[in-house]
Write a structure and sequence with these properties.
By secondary structure, this protein is an alpha/beta fold. The chain is built from eleven helices and eight strands. It is 43% helix and 15% strand.
Length: 281
């Protein structure tokens, strides 16, 4: 195996990097590389200058939780029969995102190729393109802790005789919480999202990965889509920064794709990559 020298300007513990790509072979190499890597999610941008911002953030300078809740209720009233039985806040918000309403959700995909398609969706543009790449595993611990906090509160309700939910679902849920396997993790993340949208965890900052129950819609399934949801209604990048525990979230440059793959494979601290795609030959 070829060993690479460390980039002199790149510290050993780095959270975010950028890399320029100018050949199709490099993109093909990255597509094959990420197919073997678990936990990384992707978002393609037609213009490299675009940052990671939700549509809500782009359209409104400030939104509070009451306004968001009112928008969700209004959508539910207007949507009527278009929505299935699951009318939880996060399900409604995902429908709003699907139909183009500004929400706090940001679309990502598990597929590098799908992100690449969206990066080149405007073929008339002469701008550099970009793919944002994020390690969603970095956010699991906080969502797991909040899920357990919700479970602890349910236990307290049982002890005090205040629990009013489904006892069968409760028994199964509490039993599954001991194991916290993959499918249960997804369910718990949706529960945490519903709690946040209902006004819980107001002081939390971070990003919550969300996979909706399939089939939510055919397009989301085909695109291997998921959402990243900021826990607060502040800027997405501020929530992202809160999760990786560092005030330094500037993108450190990496010179080559080979060096980038090495850093991703061997650096457990890496959270985010901005891949800038220039004129490919």
């Amino acid at each position: 195996m070829v060993k690479f020298q460390n980039d002199p300007e790149l510290p050993r513990k780095v959270r975010a990097v950028s890399c320029h790509v100018s050949s199709w072979m490099d993109l093909y190499s990255l597509a094959r590389f990420f197919k073997k890597m678990r936990g990384w999610v992707f978002r393609g941008h037609c213009k490299a200058e675009w940052s990671l911002q939700t549509k809500l953030e782009r359209n409104y300078s400030e939104v509070n939780l009451n306004q968001e809740s009112a928008a969700i209720r209004n959508f539910e009233d207007l949507a009527g029969g278009m929505i299935n039985r699951d009318r939880s806040p996060i399900s409604l918000l995902s429908y709003m995102q699907h139909y183009g309403t500004p929400t706090r959700l940001l679309d990502f995909t598990k597929s590098f190729q799908v992100a690449l398609y969206f990066a080149f969706s405007d073929l008339e543009s002469n701008d550099d393109h970009a793919i944002w790449i994020i390690n969603q595993h970095e956010f699991m611990e906080k969502s797991k802790a909040l899920a357990h906090q919700l479970s602890d509160e349910t236990y307290s309700q049982i002890e005090n005789g205040d629990y009013c939910g489904d006892p069968v679902a409760l028994e199964q849920g509490l039993a599954d919480s001991i194991h916290f396997d993959e499918s249960f993790r997804r369910d718990q993340q949706r529960k945490v999202a519903n709690a946040i949208l209902s006004g819980r965890f107001r002081d939390e900052r971070g990003v919550l990965p969300l996979e909706m129950k399939q089939p939510f819609n055919k397009r989301l399934k085909k695109q291997q889509g998921l959402f990243l949801m900021p826990m607060s209604l502040g800027p997405f990048m501020e929530n992202l920064k809160a999760d990786w525990g560092s005030d330094d979230w500037r993108l450190k440059p990496i010179r080559t794709v080979a060096r980038l793959k090495e850093k991703i494979s061997g650096n457990g601290d890496l959270v985010m990559v901005k891949l800038v795609i220039k004129d490919c030959v």
